[in-house]
Amino acid sequence: xxxxxxxxxxxxxxxxxxxxxxxxxxxxxxxxxxxxxxxxxxxxxxxxxxxxxxxxxxxxxxxxxxxxxxxxxxxxxxxxxxxxxxxxxxxxxxxxxxxxxxxxxxxxxxxxxxxxxxxxxxxxxxxxxxxxxxxxxxxxxxxxxxxxxxxxxxxxxxxxxxxxxxxxxxxxxxxxxxxxxxxxxxxxxxxxxxxxxxxxxxxxxxxxxxxxxxxxxxxxxxxxxxxxxxxxxxxxxxxxxxxxxxxxxxxxxxxxxxxxxxxxxxxxxxxxxxxxxxxxxxxxxxxxxxxxxxxxxxxxxxxxxxxxxxxxxxxxxxxxxxxxxxxxxxxx
Length: 332
Hints:
The protein is an alpha/beta fold. It folds into three domains: 5-48, lambda repressor-like DNA-binding domains (434 Repressor (Amino-terminal Domain), Orthogonal Bundle), CATH 1.10.260.40; 62-158 and 293-320, Rossmann fold (3-Layer(aba) Sandwich); 160-290 and 325-330, Response regulator (Rossmann fold, 3-Layer(aba) Sandwich). Helix content is 42%, strand content 14%. It has twelve helices and twelve strands. The strands form three sheets. Strands 2-1-3-4-5-11 form a six-stranded parallel beta sheet, sandwiched between helices. Strands 7-6-8-9 form a four-stranded parallel beta sheet. Strand 8 (240-243), helix 11 (246-258) and strand 9 (268-270) form a beta-alpha-beta unit. The longest helix is centred in the first third of the chain and has 16 residues, at 73-88. The protein starts with a helix and ends in a 7-residue tail after the last strand.
């Protein structure tokens, strides 16, 4: 059984309030009582509840991280960027996910904020200013890959729109004019930005976006697989397919092969994110390199500066560059 403050008080022969004063260092306590309390807490292995420490304005030692999902190369790479600097500064990570569900997101973030000293939040469905309204105004927080409309909110994003624009340009430069697009989740700012970049590049090169060439998706392998029959039913079918993330692109490649088509001989395929598998898949995947690890590193640096009260810092939203990486899946 986990020891409680009552257990410490009984072992030390003092009141619960005395234990609280000793552990929180909130008032003067007789030295003999202080020593008994400290020895009792050590013997029992007792440590105060992080939520209680937070309410008392003391450090919990925790950094909260809220992501849409935890599984997958994208999120693993992001956490890798955060992990080392967190531990090097004497903190530990408390990681949770929202499953892209707004109700679940709000419940999780309001629970996390009482247990940690600061938050890193990836909120693709809810704008940063809305999230801030659900939290104490003095809570250190840095947003990543999140829509930000206020100058006083600190955020680290990467250029989703620009990356999608440049990859679409690459396909157009190879002579493709009928390009299919597998979309990301509805009401997701990163997915919306990638779709917007795709459409803008088409228009700027004299190609009107065609709704029949845009198929719903949700950033999953299955979404890519499910999109292919709709593309193949078109006459003429697309000569290239751009999936809104790499995982969906793998699904597209798999379904095209099942249909007896060659990639890139019959249909070129591209993705977005440049997760590790993209360099080793067959064919290797043309994609947009998103600096996910660097985004994590920048976010934790900024959050630690907030927690430590670094003076002279302006909170700002920064956007990291993305880069097209051309590989075998779009080779002409």
